[in-house]
């Protein structure tokens, strides 16, 4: 090896190493694998939450419906005697009868199929239904004090009917059990017939 080649080799060894555009942690392949993994995990969790919230299980829907019917029946019993309109009292009595029959049928079905017990219902369902019941009671109490109970009662009961009918429609769509379908269809049709009476109620009639 001549002197020039020797000097060239030394020169090449001493040249600074070029850094990649992404240095440090950002240049690590493990970093980007981790980023992609986290992104996929978050996406799956979000998607699962959306689908889970939108779909739910038939069991949870059924339990929530039973609690909602129980709570609505309780409120009717408390405030129906204070309604002034004889027509509205009649609608309310019809609704109470429908809910009583529906609750009996659904509770028997849920007990046979799922060993239903109110205390075993998921805590978030209990809390949601209890909060809704308390809010409606407070609203009726204020309406009673202000002398507008009939109007508020009719409006809110129309809304409650729509909530229960919507849950029944979801169960009808998702369940394959003929017994449950028959119960829900009977209740749904009865509620549908009453909805317009509450929704169209006017104190001036």
- Which second-level CATH architecture of the largest domain applies? Up-down Bundle
How many H/I helices?
7
N-to-C terminal Cα separation, in Å?
115 Å
Count of discrete domains: 2
Specify the oligomeric state.
Answer: single chain
- Alpha-beta classification: mainly alpha
CATH level 1 name of the largest domain: Mainly Alpha
Count the beta strands: 0
Order of helices and strands: HHHHHHH
Based on CA inertia axes, which overall geometry fits? globular
Give me the Rg, rounded.
32 Å
> Any low-confidence stretches, pLDDT <50, length ≥5?
40-55
Could you tell me the CATH topology label of the largest domain. Answer: Ferritin
Range of helix content: over 70%
What do you see in this structure?
By secondary structure, this protein is mainly alpha-helical. The protein has two domains: 22-55; 57-199, Ferritin. The chain contains seven helices and no strands.
Concise overview:
The chain has 205 residues and is an all-alpha fold. It is built from 7 helices and no strands. The protein folds into 2 domains: 22-55; 57-199, Up-down Bundle (Ferritin), CATH 1.20.1260.
Please supply descriptive tags for the structure shown above.
205 residues, mainly alpha, 78% helix
Produce the secondary structure layout.
Elements: H1 3-13, H2 29-55, H3 58-79, H4 86-114, H5 123-145, H6 149-174, H7 178-199
């Amino acid at each position: 090896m001549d002197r020039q080649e020797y000097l060239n080799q030394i020169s090449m060894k001493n040249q600074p190493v070029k850094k990649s555009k992404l240095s440090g942690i950002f240049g690590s392949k493990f970093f980007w694998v981790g980023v992609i993994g986290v992104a996929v995990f978050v996406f799956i969790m979000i998607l699962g939450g959306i689908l889970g919230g939108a779909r739910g299980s038939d069991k949870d829907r059924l339990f929530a419906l039973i609690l909602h019917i129980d709570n609505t029946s309780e409120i009717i019993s408390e405030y129906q005697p204070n309604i002034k309109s004889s027509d509205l009292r009649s609608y309310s009595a019809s609704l109470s009868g429908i809910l009583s029959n529906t609750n009996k049928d659904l509770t028997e079905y849920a007990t046979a199929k799922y060993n239903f017990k109110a205390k075993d219902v998921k805590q978030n369902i209990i809390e949601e239904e209890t909060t809704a019941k308390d809010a409606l009671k407070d609203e009726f109490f204020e309406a009673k004090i202000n002398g507008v109970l009939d109007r508020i009662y009719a409006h809110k009961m129309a809304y409650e009917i729509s909530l229960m009918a919507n849950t029944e429609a979801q169960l009808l769509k998702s369940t394959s059990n003929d017994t449950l379908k028959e119960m829900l269809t009977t209740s749904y049709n009865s509620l549908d017939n009453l909805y317009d009476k509450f929704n169209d109620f006017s104190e001036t009639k």
